[in-house]
């Protein structure tokens, strides 16, 4: 189900710049998404009228009762996805179906201008594929649902921001994607990402692939043949440096020397962000008609249903959606009007 038959696709409306209502998709009901959302909302940090929940109300009430004593879940606007039984910790067709439908409903609300951004709890690749999805993750699904192109993933961990040249690819395949053309394109995307977030100073670093940036070809030629030429091509238009050795560039960005790092493969950027602050890393999609933020962890099936999941990342993801949604909408409007 790339897009389910009940999903009403349309060209997106421009999100009203003054709209600060966001949607939260609760993720896979067999995972921890419902629990961490309930805990985050029980903190009292968010106004109930500014949030719409998308998912199985039945499973949300169960999760809330399990991990948050006294939470009145009825005070939140809910777009219910009726659901059958789901066993915590066991991804299956039903949990995958609910996760996909939640995303579709939230996207429809955003495209209709009812919400200004979407914050997503984790889904299971296994479960959504079992349910018939042809998309392996949130990003590819959101691209298909909105007809978007050049959507990139950005991580924000304190002052460290990272975008990814490749994500869910085997490492051997990811290395083959380190080309002059791809790097040049991601320098452009990095600059665009910072504009979407309202960043005035846009200093970009491109991480090296090989140890010590290849040591002038001794440890690999990708830096000489692909990365350095791409950076040189881009310098006329952008503030960009690279290749910067990967064992240094993330520390430099976290210290404020760079505003964003182009990471060349999944683990290169993920390890840096999660080591810096595992619980407070926020993932964002840039290039959709609306802002999407997310936790930077999975469904944690091993602890699902136990009421012990840490909701810190969810708190930060919700805060980030509120913090950037107006700036994001304003920049999208300026693009449409230019």
Number of helices: 11
Count of folded domains: 2
Helix content: 40-55%
Any idea of the CATH topology of the largest domain?
Isopropylmalate Dehydrogenase
Q: SSE string, helix = H, strand = E?
A: EHEHEHEHHEEHHEHEHEHEEH
Explain what the structure shows.
This protein has 338 residues and is an alpha/beta fold. The chain folds into 2 domains: 1-151 and 287-338, Isopropylmalate Dehydrogenase, CATH 3.40.718; 152-278, Isopropylmalate Dehydrogenase (3-Layer(aba) Sandwich), CATH 3.40.718.10. The protein has 11 helices and 11 strands. It has helices at 33-42, 57-67, 93-111, 125-130, 138-146, 171-176, 180-196, 222-234, 246-254, 266-277, 312-337; strands at residues 22-25, 51-55, 77-80, 117-120, 152-157, 160-164, 203-207, 239-244, 260-263, 282-286, 291-295. The protein has an 11-stranded mixed β-sheet, sandwiched between helices. A hairpin with a 2-residue loop joins strand 5 and strand 6. Helix 1 (33-42) packs across helix 2 (57-67), helix 3 (93-111) packs across helix 5 and helix 7 (180-196) crosses helix 8 (222-234). The longest helix has 26 residues, at 312-337. It is globular. The two termini are 36 Å apart. Mean pLDDT is 91; it is low at 1-12.
């Amino acid at each position: 189900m790339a897009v389910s038959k009940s999903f009403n696709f349309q060209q997106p409306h421009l999100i009203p710049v003054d709209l600060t209502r966001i949607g939260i998709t609760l993720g896979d009901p067999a995972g921890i998404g419902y629990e961490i959302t309930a805990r985050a909302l029980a903190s009292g940090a968010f106004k109930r009228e500014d949030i719409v929940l998308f998912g199985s109300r039945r499973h949300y009430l169960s999760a809330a009762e399990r991990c948050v004593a006294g939470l009145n879940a009825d005070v939140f606007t809910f777009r219910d996805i009726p659901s059958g039984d789901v066993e915590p910790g066991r991804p299956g067709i039903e949990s995958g179906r609910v996760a996909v439908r939640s995303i579709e409903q939230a996207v429809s609300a955003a495209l209709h201008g009812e919400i200004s951004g979407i914050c997503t709890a984790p889904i299971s690749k296994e479960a959504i594929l079992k349910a018939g999805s042809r998309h392996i993750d949130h990003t590819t699904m959101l691209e298909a649902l909105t007809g978007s192109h050049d959507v990139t993933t950005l991580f924000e961990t304190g002052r460290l921001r990272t975008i990814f040249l490749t994500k869910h690819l085997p490492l051997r395949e990811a290395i083959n994607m380190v080309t002059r053309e791809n790097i040049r394109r991601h320098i452009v995307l990095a600059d665009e990402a910072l504009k979407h977030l309202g960043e005035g100073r846009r200093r970009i670093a491109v991480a090296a692939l090989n140890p010590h940036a290849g040591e002038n070809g001794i440890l690999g030629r990708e830096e000489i043949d692909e990365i350095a030429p791409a950076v040189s091509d881009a310098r006329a238009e952008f503030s960009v440096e690279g290749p910067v050795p990967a064992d240094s560039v993330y520390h430099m960005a976290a210290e404020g020397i760079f505003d964003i790092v182009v990471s060349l493969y999944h683990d290169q950027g993920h390890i840096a962000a999660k080591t810096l602050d595992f619980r407070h890393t926020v993932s964002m999609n840039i290039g959709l008609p609306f802002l999407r933020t997310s936790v930077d962890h999975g469904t944690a099936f091993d602890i699902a249903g136990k009421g012990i999941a840490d909701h810190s990342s969810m708190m930060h993801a919700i805060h980030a959606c509120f913090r950037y949604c107006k700036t994001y909408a304003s920049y999208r409007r300026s693009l449409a009007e230019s």
